[in-house]
Amino acid sequence: MENLEKQLICPICLEMFTKPVVILPCQHNLCRKCANDVFQASNPYLPTRSGSLTSGGRFRCPSCRHEVVLDRHGVYGLQRNLLVENIIDMFKQESSSSKPAPERKEETPTCDVHEDEKINIYCVTHGVPTCSMCKVFGAHKDCEVAPISSIYETKKTELSDGIAMMVGNNDRMQGIISQLEEACRAVEENGRRQKTLVCEKFDHLYSILEDKKRQMSQKVTAEQEEKVNYIQGLTRKYGDHLEESCKIVELGIQTMEEPEMALFLQNTKPLLKKIAEASTTAHLDKVERGYENMDHYSVNFKKEGKALRTIDFALDDDDEDEEDEDAEGGTEEGEGAQTVSGGAAVTATSSQPSAPQQISSSPSAAKSAASTLSDNRQMTPKPGAE
């Protein structure tokens, strides 16, 4: 083993090779760090990076003086000798297993004041271990002391009890941490679920408002189309009457040019009758004043907006979907010009932060706010509306 150890000595540091071990072209081995040191000493003017040369150069082997030429990688371009590294590992294992474990010697600490005196008593007054000389001549001569062995057993018992108490406390703390983590996960899950419910309730409210908007728009559209069709029909009638009048005028002009008096008088009687009939428009309908006005479909959503702004969370879950649907289905909306005003209030009460909360903006509250747009208020035509 000694001969083997001699073969594993680096010729530079004179110690056992330190991995990684590099092999030179002359087949001698060096620690990579030692090879880098020799390389830097032989090439002091080459640029370095992080303490190692990064460009090509040359140096001589310290064992045989053979010139070693390196590429741009420097010593990092040399090949590692994995065989020597494995032999070093095996040698260290054998050396550590063959050497007996050193016996542990119990060393008794000595006094700081009396260096040759071992600490063998315990000062109860100051709570520190000391030596006999300190009790006789030193700073602890007036203090109460006790044998260090008895104090050792007492303090060891106290420390053992303290450790046991801390272990129990740590277990309880770990249990509390686990409960808190579980509570945190539950809060996150419940929060996601409640946010989903809130979104669903508001989506339902949006759908109710969209339905009401569609219904009220259809009423306005229906009267609009009715009035437009009526006015267009009158326009066609007046156009036909105007066309007939123009024809009578042309016929009258032609009659005026008739030179024969007898023939003129003969044609004048029926022409005057036609002129009298064409001059009157009593048989044609007339559009009343304000007929084109559509302001009687006015809306006032002030109360509804106030009710919607009071939507909040409540403790009680008032689920009245079916009752609201029946009430909405049984309400008939009046036909013709109507005015929407007022609304139903949405009752909402805030819950305590720690209590589970339900959404008071249930379909009942949503529909009570939205249905007041046309169902819960009598819509009355304005003066001047048809």
UniProtKB/TrEMBL annotation:
One of its GO terms (molecular function) is ubiquitin protein ligase activity. Residues 347-374 have a biased composition (Low complexity). Residues 170-226 form a coiled coil. Residues 256-314 form the COS domain. It holds the Pfam family zf-B_box. PROSITE patterns: COS, ZF_BBOX, ZF_RING_1, ZF_RING_2. Residues 106-148 form the B box-type domain. Residues 315-386 are annotated as: Disordered. Its EC number is 2.3.2.27. One of its GO terms (cellular component) is nucleus. It catalyses: S-ubiquitinyl-[E2 ubiquitin-conjugating enzyme]-L-cysteine + [acceptor protein]-L-lysine = [E2 ubiquitin-conjugating enzyme]-L-cysteine + N(6)-ubiquitinyl-[acceptor protein]-L-lysine. Residues 10-65 form the RING-type domain. Its main location: cytoplasm. It is an enzyme of class 2 (transferase). This is RING-type E3 ubiquitin transferase. It comes from Amphiprion percula (Orange clownfish).
